[in-house]
Design brief:
The protein is an alpha/beta fold. Helix content is 38%, strand content 14%.
């Protein structure tokens, strides 16, 4: 089964939304992980609220620390435009999605970020499933 790791420094907004969308859209066809180099204490409340608006529950999601093992176990490693550095291993696909940071933003400011993430994830699912 193909696997995807979403990485952002705090693993509290963009990477959590991306992981939730991928899980929602791909179901059990793709293994999904998310992590950050300096994980926050909780997922960004505005991200939780923005995802709830589209029927995806992030209330039980928790930020996780980025490990070398998570990168090694993933086929795709996707950073969220946050400048986080990942260990590089041959044979992986590395992508960087340039996204605004939802940290400290209102839910109104997070909605367009959420919608952009969904578009990226939809394209990713189509690419992985057709490969």
């Amino acid at each position: 089964m193909p696997s995807v790791l979403f990485v952002c420094v705090h693993n509290a907004g963009r990477s959590q939304m991306a992981a939730a969308f991928l899980t929602h859209l791909a179901g059990d066809r793709i293994e999904v992980r998310s992590a950050g180099s300096l994980p926050a204490n909780q997922v960004n409340p505005a991200a939780v609220e923005a995802m709830a608006e589209v029927g995806i529950d992030l209330t039980t999601a928790t930020p996780k620390v980025l490990t070398t093992e998570a990168v090694q176990a993933s086929d795709y490693v996707i950073t969220m435009g946050c400048g986080d550095a990942c260990p590089i291993f041959p044979g992986k696909t590395y992508l960087d999605w340039r996204l605004d940071d939802p940290a400290g933003q209102s839910v109104g400011a997070v909605r367009p970020i959420r919608d952009e993430i969904r578009r990226y994830v939809e394209t990713l699912v189509a690419e992985i499933i057709s490969a």
